Amino acid sequence: MNRCHRSSGAGADGFWLRPLWLAKVRHRLGGGGFLSGRGGGFGGGDDGISRGRKFSSDDLQILLVALLADTPRHGYELIRMLEERSNGFYTPSPGMVYPALTYLEEIGYTTVAAEGNRKKYALTADGRAYLATNRERIELIWAKLSFFAHKMGMIRRALGGEEADDGAQEHPSKELTEARMLLMQHLFARRHAPPKEQVRIAKILQRAAAEIAAIPAGDPHKN
Predict the structure, then answer these.
(1) Which residues of 185-216 are buried (b: 16+ CB within 10 A; e: fewer)?
(2) pLDDT digit string (tens) for 112-150?
(3) Domain spans of the chain?
(4) pTM confidence score
(5) Neighbour tally for 110: CB within 10 Å
(6) Do the Cβ atoms of 110 and 124 come closer than 8 Å?
(7) The domain 1-169: what is its CATH number?
(8) CA-based angle 52:140:60, to the nearest 5?
């Protein structure tokens, strides 16, 4: 059973922002939105930043579970990893992360070990089971963070007066990222489909995979 839910005291807007940098970014994006801590986050306008739902406490909890999959980590490590994975777009505050970690411990998804005056969190068997049953949702959230990380990089280069290098595709294109997110959304919405429908979906995915496999990979350093 999905036992993760919004933890008490953890709002959706508790992330750190650099005021001068934020002012420039908000100007580039038309103001408001996710980065201002007032508006939406994933979804909405062309860049998905100015409108849509916020990054909820549920989302944060499942990301923390995912980040603990490989090895136990301290809370500050988890904050830093989220900042790095999103290229500075999403940096949850300690006031969000530590209550979420406490809640995950209370419901049995993590354990905590003291290391001096710090705590290190690790997944339990229940936490790994939760991770396995929510893999599609996690992949969707990572895809969204990857897209916003790419947008943040573009904004930084633009503010610094740098020209985009169209020949160097360090990140997937906007179209590919959006298509992946849309696919994950539909798969997640149909995760409880009847067996016959699941077989039908699997065949659709197999055909799509075969078409993609037929496309030459090409040289990433050539136009």
Answers:
(1) eebeeeeeeeeeeeeeeeeeeeeeeeeeeeee
(2) 999 888 899 999 999 999 999 998 888 888 888 888 887
(3) 1-169, 172-218
(4) 0.56
(5) 22
(6) yes
(7) 1.10.10.10
(8) 70
